[in-house]
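It is worth pausing here to work through a concrete case rather than discussing structure prediction in the abstract. The textbook approach is simple: state the sequence, then state the predicted structure, then interpret. We follow exactly that order.
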Amino acid sequence: MAVKARIWLRVSTGRQDEANQLPDCVKWCDTHEYDYDPDECYTVHGKSAYHGQQDKDLDRAFNDMADGKYTVLVVWASDRIERRGAFAAFMLAERARNAGGRIEYVLEPHLNETNEMNDVMLALAATMAHQESKRKGERIKAGLAARRAAGSIVTRPSWGYRIQCENHPELHETKDCGHIKHFVPTEEGRKWIPVIFESIINGKSARAVSQMLDVAGIKTASGNRWNENYLNGILIKNPVYYGYLRNGGAIEVEALVSPTVWQEANAALASRASRGRGTVVRDKALFIPYCAACYGEEREGCPSGKSPMYLVPKKGLAGSYYCCWGHGPQRKGCGARSIRVGDLEEEVTERMCDDEEPHWERVFIAGDTISDEIARLGQIGSEAMQKGDLGAAQEAIAKMAELKAQPRVAPHWELVKTDMTEAQHFASLTRDQRREYLSRFEIIKALGRPVVIRERIEFPV
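Step two, the predicted structure:
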């Protein structure tokens, strides 16, 4: 009865073709009269054996061997299955023996012998493969560093940019041509990156911005829908949008926003509380009021004199009520709990819709070029400190000090009067927009007392 065998094929990059190894492996099986099925090969494409990316495929191969599906695993060469050194190669052979089988190498038949020198030869082959991978990695790093030094991009483009070859500007992207490449903004990037940053600065949540982009038909780089985690954690924090490429050396990238706008958007996100998500979807209240009976009174458990009232859900939002539980570790409030959510929302809405005062919009004014350069140097100095490069950090700080001594226009907010009244503006908002707008105010209420609405957000200068 013929010995059952299976073939292992692996290449480390997507540009290589593991099919080149197949003819030699098939010939080996035929000459040894092994019973094999070409459709049951273990094909590992674009995974590095130096970093152990093939481990899951190895587990599958040895589990099948242990289950008796085959006995011999035919491999083109030892570096096609393992590149992590002598110990890893020994463990590989041991796993095959424990599974009741063995590994045979087509190009290295001397490793298939079962004699005293086999382990020594296997250790030498594994060590050479490990060193070769290490040198290859060093060559790649040196090549990337040389391309960076020449002013070429070596990373994938961020959203809103594309790669363009210096020698072929008419092409959007050219691969493996060896020429200098740059990031060039796309039409969508030029239009929407400033909109995204300004929206965050003006108080829109990342979720609202994601919905805005989806409605406009704008796709992410992967073609998927937008999500707040990508905006919060990646896009807004990426300094490439003000022209600074991380680990890019002196490579210049066309900025889509100014450094001050970038910093303001990141500060706006950092200042917002992360509420998380529950598994049950409920209607949200428009606001969380403060108890007027406790307001301004310093007491045990409420040293700030502001006791927020907590929503107690009951038969939907309209039937729920607010209760004063105090503030702080002790949470000793006055216990008022007869204020119904629906009644208070109706009272606040009436007050807002009766306000005939003019409506003022808060507008962010970016700084001049000196302020932008100060912001850029601040980011460079911060990253240099994180990397432990004190010289670069001190140089950035010294340049900042020189620029700060010059006359400049700092980034600031301005109030711009609109042609609407507060009542007209509030009436034009959706429920979610009203919730966001009312976060600017303190709603103060107690049983039997009229509601008091005080603006609590100071416009930053």
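Step three, interpretation. The radius of gyration is 33 Å. The first strand starts at residue 4 and ends at 11.
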